[in-house]
UniProtKB/TrEMBL annotation:
It comes from Flavobacterium granuli. It comes from the Bacteria. InterPro entries: Epimerase_deHydtase (IPR001509), NAD(P)-bd_dom_sf (IPR036291), NAD(P)-dependent_oxidoreduct (IPR051783). Residues 2-229 form the NAD-dependent epimerase/dehydratase domain. This is Nucleoside-diphosphate-sugar epimerase.
């Protein structure tokens, strides 16, 4: 049997559909029963309602050892998708606790229960920092602790350290580092918020550059890696490196709404970040634009996907076409 953590999130929910379509016996963790409704709605969106009842749901938390004891009974493979994504400095401790300590717990149970293989969902945020003489980030680019990183990036890097510890202790592992993941059904979180904001009339764009990937590619690659003899490796999962302006334009065109009109310069983003800090500290509002988020909006990072393409001989879905596809679901 296969265990999926984070089965009520974008990656985990899509992974559940994919695994069930491939005939896998699946157990999934949930913390709050209400969260499973989002996963059920996704199955309905894809007209896969009949598959949903095949999931063996079990209430648990990656920080709660007793519930993990129940979840790991009879498990042979684990897909660790659970994580907290936040760029709010006030949530730094919680982000690190969930992403690092939670991953350590998963690794420890995999070792103690003799799990055959673990697939960990990391992020391109956990990849390295380019030295001046290089231009493309790969799986081999070294992490530089002296460079600025978001709390989220640090937490995902720390989580990977736990995965490599598991490898050293005899656990077969693979790590995937997706870029910005695009997929339907979760329009109020992650990349889905960008679709919602554009639909509601987002006026500004930035000219930062990063890697994007379709969720269907992510879950398919994860399953292929788990079925393969490959282990002890990490793989960057991106389809294309895209300028944020072009990405937002593609969303607007697919939704048939106005494109964002104004260029938010780095200076403007930094000013907005400071105003956001004031609103958070004076009025107690949740941070919407942290310093790290502002910086990432105009950072231009190029990522290579050659390693995974060569390992599995795959062709990635074009992100711009995928945007059109999911807006019509």
């Amino acid at each position: 049997m296969v265990l999926v953590t984070g089965g009520t999130g974008l990656v985990g929910a899509h992974l559940l559909i994919h695994l069930l379509e491939k005939g896998e016996n699946v157990r999934a963790l949930y913390r709050n029963l209400d969260n499973t409704h989002k996963t059920k709605a996704l199955f309905s969106l894809y007209k896969k309602e009949a598959l949903y009842d095949s999931i063996q749901w079990i209430q648990g938390d990656i920080l709660d050892i007793p519930t993990l004891e129940n979840a790991f009974q009879g498990i042979e493979q684990v897909y660790h998708c659970a994580a907290m994504i936040s760029f709010d400095p006030k949530e730094e401790d919680l982000v690190r606790k969930i992403n690092i300590e939670g991953t350590a717990n998963i690794v420890n149970f995999c070792l103690s229960k003799n799990v055959k293989k673990l697939c960990h969902v990391s992020s391109i945020a956990a990849l390295g920092d380019l030295p001046e003489h290089e231009s493309i980030i790969t799986e081999e680019t070294e992490w530089n602790p002296e460079k600025p990183h978001s709390d989220y990036a640090i937490s995902k890097y720390g989580a990977e350290m736990e995965i490599w510890r598991g490898l050293q202790e005899g656990l077969e592992v693979v790590v995937v580092n997706p870029g910005v993941i695009i997929g339907p059904g979760f329009w109020n979180q992650g990349s889905g918020e960008l679709f919602t904001k554009v639909k509601n009339g987002l006026a500004f764009y930035t000219k930062g550059l990063t890697g994007f990937v379709a969720i269907s590619d992510v879950v398919s690659i994860m399953h292929q890696l788990m079925k393969s003899p490959i282990h002890g490796e990490r793989f960057t999962l991106i389809s294309q490196n895209i300028i944020f302006q072009d990405f937002l334009y593609s969303i607007a065109d697919a939704l048939k709404v106005k494109r964002p009109k104004y260029h938010a310069t780095p200076l403007m983003m930094n000013i907005l970040s400071k105003l956001d800090w004031v609103a958070s500290n004076v009025f107690g509002q949740k941070r919407q634009l942290s310093k790290a988020s502002a910086r990432s909006s105009y950072t231009t990072d190029l990522y290579s996907n050659e390693k995974i393409k060569n390992a599995l001989n795959i062709t990635f879905i074009d992100v711009h076409n995928y945007i059109k596809e999911i807006t019509n679901l």
